[in-house]
């Protein structure tokens, strides 16, 4: 018998034995296995592991993106929320984490957008590309509404698809060779965009900071305003007031110090005033209320949290003509070039909504929506105060900054989510000085705010 015949006989015998054994088991397990006659057994070589690997290009990854830690804060919260829902599919989860508005846009504003949209279907009303800097009428309305008597003119204003987008465009203007400072804690887009642009070194895990960023510590002990005498000189200073996440608003005296600090150091302030309309106290609503600010500051703002435009997308940035680079070239001209190169202007429908926001009726309607969210804030503040927590913010911004001393922010986030099904935001996601705090957003339907506060009381009573 040849070797091939021997192998064939052996395999055939083994197959018969296996099938007989399987048929015996089928009587006890109700499993039926059908034997195939004249089966051919082939020896197939294993596919080399290398050939199973996906094709790769020869293009290197942007090393700056590789520096970023985990995911951007709010998508990471979204992932954890989704995982929680898989674990508790019937849970009624309340989201007070990401600062997304929840109340409908006032009718006086949506009707203007609807009218503009319908006009686009007519020959007379159709319009294509507009000015990249924004429609003149809207730029004029922004100037007259928010910058009256501040020396800001229509052509200093650039209308955009939101303050967050403009922050990244400004980073492109500044380039990779600048140094930057940021409030700690602060909105994470400032730091992440700086990292992506290559302005920083690596992330230092031991201190939870990126190299080459000046973190200006803002805590209850210093009234959430940095001690500028201990802040190193940088080219760019990102500053948000009212602050996200702490809710703290800088006083006139503090902003005067900041402008002087920038002038003394030849720095540029990027001032984020996205929550200025929430101000209850007599604090500046614009950096340009401070004398000399036009020579050292840029201001960015948005309709997102005023009119519920988080999905509509409309904002603006003010770059005064007086602001110059070290060689005397106007910053506004470079920003305009970036806008014209990377952006085709805000949606004409959104801009129609912006104009309606700044009409007397629209402005009143915006204030009513803001007033509603401020009432939500009062409810949240009262809840945590009654539970004995130290609570900050809430007066000038739609965020409540709650202190959990000695505890990890992510642990508190997880505890609240697990035991109350309420999503908050861990303070450490805004910077190392945010550790031990949790941000609670006041953006929510009233019924959800009341229910969330009821659950907080049950958890921490």
UniProtKB/TrEMBL annotation:
<dbReference type="GO" id="GO:0009862">
    <property type="term" value="P:systemic acquired resistance, salicylic acid mediated signaling pathway"/>
</dbReference>
<comment type="similarity">
    <text>Belongs to the class-I pyridoxal-phosphate-dependent aminotransferase family. LL-diaminopimelate aminotransferase subfamily.</text>
</comment>
<dbReference type="GO" id="GO:0008483">
    <property type="term" value="F:transaminase activity"/>
</dbReference>
<keyword id="KW-0663">Pyridoxal phosphate</keyword>
<dbReference type="InterPro" id="IPR004839">
    <property type="entry name" value="Aminotransferase_I/II_large"/>
</dbReference>
<keyword id="KW-0808">Transferase</keyword>
<keyword id="KW-0032">Aminotransferase</keyword>
<dbReference type="InterPro" id="IPR019942">
    <property type="entry name" value="DapL/ALD1"/>
</dbReference>
<feature type="domain" description="Aminotransferase class I/classII large">
    <location>
        <begin position="92"/>
        <end position="456"/>
    </location>
</feature>
<dbReference type="GO" id="GO:0030170">
    <property type="term" value="F:pyridoxal phosphate binding"/>
</dbReference>
<protein>
    <recommendedName>
        <fullName>Aminotransferase class I/classII large domain-containing protein</fullName>
    </recommendedName>
</protein>
<dbReference type="Pfam" id="PF00155">
    <property type="entry name" value="Aminotran_1_2"/>
</dbReference>
């Amino acid at each position: 018998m040849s070797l091939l015949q021997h192998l064939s006989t052996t395999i055939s015998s083994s197959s018969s034995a296996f099938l007989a054994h399987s048929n015996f088991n089928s009587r006890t397990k109700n499993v039926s296995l059908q034997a195939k006659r004249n089966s051919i057994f082939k020896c197939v070589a294993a596919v080399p592991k290398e050939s199973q690997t996906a094709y790769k290009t020869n293009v290197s990854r942007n090393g700056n993106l590789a520096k970023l830690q985990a995911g951007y804060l709010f998508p990471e919260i979204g992932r954890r929320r989704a995982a929680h829902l898989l674990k508790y599919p019937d849970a009624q989860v309340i989201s007070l984490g990401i600062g997304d508005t929840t109340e409908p846009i006032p009718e006086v504003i949506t009707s203007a957008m609807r009218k503009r949209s319908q006009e686009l279907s007519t020959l007379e009303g159709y319009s294509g590309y507009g000015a990249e800097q924004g429609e003149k009428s809207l730029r004029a309305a922004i100037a007259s509404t928010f910058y009256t008597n501040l020396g800001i003119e229509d052509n200093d204003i650039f209308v955009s698809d939101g303050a967050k987008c403009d922050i990244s465009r400004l980073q492109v203007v500044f380039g990779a060779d600048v140094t930057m400072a940021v409030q700690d804690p602060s909105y994470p887009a400032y730091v992440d965009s700086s990292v992506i642009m290559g302005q920083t070194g690596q992330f230092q895990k031991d201190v939870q900071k990126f190299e080459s960023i000046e973190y200006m510590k803002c805590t209850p002990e210093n009234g959430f305003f940095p001690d500028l005498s201990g802040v190193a000189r940088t080219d760019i200073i990102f500053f948000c007031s009212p602050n996200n996440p702490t809710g703290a608003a800088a006083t006139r005296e503090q902003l005067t110090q900041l402008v002087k600090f920038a002038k003394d150091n030849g720095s540029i302030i990027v001032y984020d005033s996205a929550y200025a309309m929430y101000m209850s106290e007599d604090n500046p609503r614009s950096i340009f209320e401070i004398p000399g600010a036009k020579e050292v500051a840029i201001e960015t703002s948005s309709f997102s949290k005023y009119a519920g435009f988080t999905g509509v997308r409309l904002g603006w940035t003010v770059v005064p003509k007086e602001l110059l680079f070290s060689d005397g070239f106007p910053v506004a001209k470079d920003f305009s070039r970036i806008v014209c190169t990377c952006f085709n202007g805000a949606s004409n429908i959104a801009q129609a909504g912006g104009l309606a926001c700044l009409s007397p009726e629209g402005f009143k309607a915006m204030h009513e929506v803001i007033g509603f969210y401020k009432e939500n804030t009062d409810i949240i503040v009262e809840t945590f105060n009654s539970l004995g927590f130290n609570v900050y913010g809430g007066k000038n911004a739609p965020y409540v900054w709650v202190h959990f001393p000695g505890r990890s922010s992510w642990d508190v986030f997880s505890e609240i989510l697990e035991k109350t099904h309420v999503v908050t935001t861990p303070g450490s996601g805004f910077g190392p000085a945010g550790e031990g705090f949790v941000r609670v957003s006041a953006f929510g339907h009233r019924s959800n705010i009341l229910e969330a506060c009821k659950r907080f009381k049950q958890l921490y009573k």
